Structures are given as C-alpha cells and as structure tokens.
C-alpha cells in the first residue's frame, strides 16, 4: 500500500491511519508483547473490530498515524495524540511498534519526535504528556531521551 507522507523524520514518516489496514492493526493488537505495554488487558481483536476502531478514530478526527519505513513504505507501528484539549492546549501520546523486528531500534524515538513537533507546531499545543508502565524499559529509555520525566 502507498501511504501519504504527512510528517517525515530520517528513517520513517507518519501517515494518517486508514481503514484498509484493519488486518494489520488486528495482528498488532493480538500480540501480547504490544498489548503488555498499553494500559489495557489483552483481548482478541478481529479484523472487523479493528476496522471499527479505525473508523472511530478517523470519524473523531483524532491525530492518529501509522509509522511507515521510508525505505520500503512498510507500516511498523502506530502513534496517536489522544485527549487533545484545545482550551488547555494539552494532549497525551500513545505509541507502539507493532512489528517485533523494529522494536528497540530507535524508530519509536523518531515517531515521537515527529508527533511532538506536529503537536507543538501544527496543533499549537503547550503540553504533551504520556504514561508508561514501569517495566517497559525500551519505552522508558525512549521517553527519557526525548526529555520526558
């Protein structure tokens, strides 16, 4: 699939989520390693339920993107700004790298850098936060590298 290059970094770009990738999202959300880092319980995700989730995100116009490798236009994960408060100018980041072979290699850091820039420069946010499970060491290193405390 050819993706729309919305926000670029060195090795990746962010492209708005599309319903056509419901099967890919279902695969990622059925990976216990992915869901272990998301503040949720592991449930079986079908292609239909993933499509409904993506439709909801698109309909609500949430800033939600797929993380795409520049070298081959392969989707490897997802990143979203949730709880966007236009009055207080705040939002919360959610991210995961769905493709196991790309975890721990800096792609998440690039994606975070891109969405932070998007949040501050395009959405005019003043504060972006996130939460992390204490045992998610890859995420902790990544977030600290970008200045989160």
Describe the model:
With 149 residues, this protein is of the alpha+beta class. It has one domain (7-145): Aminopeptidase (3-Layer(aba) Sandwich). Helices cover 34% and strands 23% of the residues. It is built from five helices and six strands, in the order E-E-H-H-H-E-E-E-H-E-H. It has helices at residues 22-29, 32-36, 47-59, 107-122, 137-145, and strands at residues 7-8, 12-16, 64-69, 75-85, 90-97, 127-129. A six-stranded mixed sheet has the order 1-2-3-4-5-6, covered by helices on one side. Helix 4 links the parallel strand 5 (90-97) and strand 6. Helix 1 packs across helix 3 (47-59). The radius of gyration is 14 Å and the shape is globular.
Fold topology:
Elements: E1 7-8, E2 12-16, H1 22-29, H2 32-36, H3 47-59, E3 64-69, E4 75-85, E5 90-97, H4 107-122, E6 127-129, H5 137-145
